[in-house]
Structures are given as structure tokens and as C-alpha cells.
Amino acid sequence: MKKGLLLVTASLSLTACSFAARSPEMYRDDTKAALESKNAEILGCYDGVLKATPGAQGKVTIKFEVETETGKFVNISVDKAASTAPDAVGECVTKAVGSLAIKPPDARTGQATWTYDFAAPPPPAPAPKS
Q1: How do residues 5-60 score in pLDDT, each as one tens digit?
Q2: Which residues contact 48 (CB under 8 A, 6 or more apart)?
Q3: Hey, what domains does the chain have and what are their CATH numbers?
Q4: Per-residue model confidence as pLDDT tens digits over 109-128
Q5: Is the confidence at residue 97, as pLDDT, over 90?
Q6: Which distant-in-sequence residues (6+ apart) come within 8 Å of 55 by Cβ?
């Protein structure tokens, strides 16, 4: 099984409310931890894409919201203008992220942008000539 390289960058903005809530840093860290819990699933799916499309790589940027009542990640979409990976890789990400939630839920609605970088492994070196 080929293993691709997955790097992640993120930005998270919060819509302010007057309720007790996580600090922006805690919100970012909890969201990051939830997203990282799906890295193995995303990489497994990416490996499947690589089998069908060798060399598939690039960035997938997703945008989503975190609901206040449930902590669920909702309205997940691939930002096509900021993404360079094939659509199948974006589908890997949105499918995996669709089941996430932060616990406990927060009093603030989170709006996030998250970028995954996928790099296909280099091709194997040719066998030495005898």
C-alpha cells in the first residue's frame, strides 16, 4: 500500500456570542484534534485514489461550520478555487470529516477553513541493470 504525505494547515474564525465558551485557541485546538482523528481514514482513501490515478496529489481546502448545539461539523464543502487535488481526493476528505463533532459543543458557532496537502510518493527507483 502506498502511503501519501498529508500535511494540514488551518484557519478558524469564530462568531462572537456572549455565552461562556472556549477561547479561540482552545476552539482551534479542539477542532484540529477532531480533524486529525480522521487522518488515517483520509490517507486510506487517498491510497485508493493513487491506485486508480497514480501521481494524484495537490491541496484540498474545505470550509465548514461547527454547530453550537451539537458541535457537529456541517455545511462542509471543498473550496474549488483553493484546491488543486483531483475531485476524488476532495471526496475522501468531505466524507471523513462529515461525521465529526467537537465535544462538548461550544456556545459559539465556528467557521473554519482547513487545508490538506497530499503528495504522492516518488516512483520506485528502476532496478539496476545486470
Answers
A1: 555 555 555 444 434 578 889 988 999 999 999 999 999 999 999 999 999 999 99
A2: 92
A3: 5-14+23-119 (3.30.1150)
A4: 889 999 999 998 877 778 78
A5: yes
A6: 120
- All three cell numbers of 33: 484534534
Interatomic CA distance for residues 40 and 13, integer angstroms:
26
What CA–CA distances, in Å, run from 5 to 27, 45, 48, 57, 122? 26, 13, 14, 9, 11
CA distance 73 to 101: 6
| pTM listed for this prediction | 0.77
> Which residue carries 462568531 as its cell?
15
Helix (H), strand (E), coil (C) string for 7-60: EEEEEEEECCCCCCCCCHHHHHHHHHHHHHCCHHHHHHHHHHHHHHCCCCCEEE
